[in-house]
Amino acid sequence: MGWISDVVARLGGRSRTTEPALELPPPPTSADILESVERIEQQIEGRVPPAVTARVHRITGTVEEMVPRLDRLGGGSQQAHTVVATATSYLPEAVGAYLRLPRDFADRRVVAHGKTSLMLLCDQLDLLGVTLDKISDAVSRADAAALVAHGQFLADKFRDSSISLSPGAGAGTPPPDLTGRLEAP
Q1: 140 pLDDT tier (thresholds 50, 70, 90)
Q2: What letter would DSSP give residue 69?
Q3: CA-to-CA distance for 126 and 52, rounded, in angstroms?
Q4: Which helix (H) or strand (E) holds 140?
Q5: What are phi and psi of 112, to 5 degrees?
Q6: Other CB atoms closer than 10 Å to residue 104's CB: what's the count?
Q7: What is the pLDDT of residue 147?
């Protein structure tokens, strides 16, 4: 019914039965993401041509590199979503669809746009790999820019310091003895 029956029920002292709240699954954790790419690596082992294996390794390697850096992208960012979705959805679905096909059909029969399923999978994996590489590069560039900015901050902060070093400072210092022996001066 509608809102009128709800009001009448409340006035009559009866509570309206409420529908259970929709519970969304929690977002994947770093462990979930890494487990997903590991599962894909296991699924393809010995079952796909080397061209697919190389592309999958490229993608899973980038995902593994990105997982500890996802916080730098921001929790709700499109880039973070792309990394997580690639590991937990896009890659498993593409590889799974290919693996469900008989090998001979997948590798030799043209299915769309003059391409076999193998060629289509390679195109999809290339797209995922390029996309992840761009995201990884963006995070690395941001980290490098932060390093440059910090170096500039330090240079500005200590430029006129009494502890600042002259450009040739340390040039006459003998290299350290790496043999572990202590020598008297």
Answers
A1: confident
A2: G
A3: 10
A4: helix 117-158
A5: -160, 135
A6: 8
A7: 85
Nearest to 91 by CA among 62, 50, 49, 134: 62
Asked if 93 and 85 count as a contact pair (C-beta separation under 8 A), the reply is: no
Asked whether 54 and 3 are in contact (CB, 8 A), the reply is no
Which amino acid is residue 19, in one-letter code?
E
User: What is the rounded CA–CA span in Å between residue 138 and residue 64?
Assistant: 16
* DSSP annotation string for 14-44: PPPPPPPPP-PPPPPPHHHHHHHHHHHHHHH
Best-predicted range by mean pLDDT among 20-29, 56-65, 130-139? 56-65
Tokens 């469900």, residue located:
100
Given a contact cutoff of 8 angstroms between Cβ atoms, the answer to whether 82 and 131 are in contact is: yes
pLDDT in tens, 69-114: 888 877 678 998 999 999 999 999 999 999 999 999 999 999 999 9
Phi then psi dihedrals of residue 116, to 5 deg: -85, 170
Tell me the pLDDT band of 34, cut-offs 50, 70 and 90.
Answer: very high
What distances in angstroms separate CA 24 from CA 21, 28, 87, 169, 177, one per listed residue? Answer: 9, 12, 19, 61, 61
